[in-house]
Structures are given as structure tokens and as C-alpha cells.
Write a structure and sequence with these properties.
The chain is of the alpha+beta class and about 70 residues long. The protein is built from 1 helix and 4 strands, in the order E-E-E-E-H.
């Protein structure tokens, strides 16, 4: 599990939560993520993405932010 908050001057812009659902045979893991954006109410977005644990948590968070931007959440 990984969580991250995005804040500017202490104001919460978004909160990300991701959990590892499945480890795949190719060394990647399938993560389910959700994103809370205060202006939009409860948890919004969310989907699954593939990520290699060896690439690190910051790379996972970066992928989630890109996916959230694609969905228009950020």
C-alpha cells in the first residue's frame, strides 16, 4: 500500500491511495488506485495499473498522477 498527499501552502489538493492487488508472472504488480480531490467530494477516479516494485514508490505515484491527469482528476 502507498499513500501520497499533494498540498500547496498546507491546502490539500489531492490524496492518492494505491494497493497491490496481484503480482503478475512477469515481475510486475497490478495496483488498484483511488484519488480524493476535495473539490469533487469523496473518492473519485481509480483504476488499475501495472508497476514493477523495483522501480520504487515514487515511480508508482508518478504513474498514478499521470493516469489521474488523463482522467481529468487533476
Amino acid at each position: 500500500m502507498v499513500t501520497a498527499e499533494i498540498r500547496i501552502n498546507g491546502t490539500l489538493l489531492g490524496h492518492i491511495y494505491a494497493v497491490n492487488d496481484v503480482t503478475l508472472e512477469n515481475g510486475q504488480s497490478l495496483y488498484h488506485w483511488e484519488c480524493y480531490v476535495p473539490d469533487r467530494g469523496p473518492l473519485v477516479g481509480g483504476t488499475e495499473l501495472r508497476h514493477r516494485r523495483e522501480d520504487g514508490a515514487l515511480a508508482l505515484i508518478s504513474k498514478i498522477i499521470e493516469a489521474a491527469k488523463t482522467k481529468g482528476l487533476f
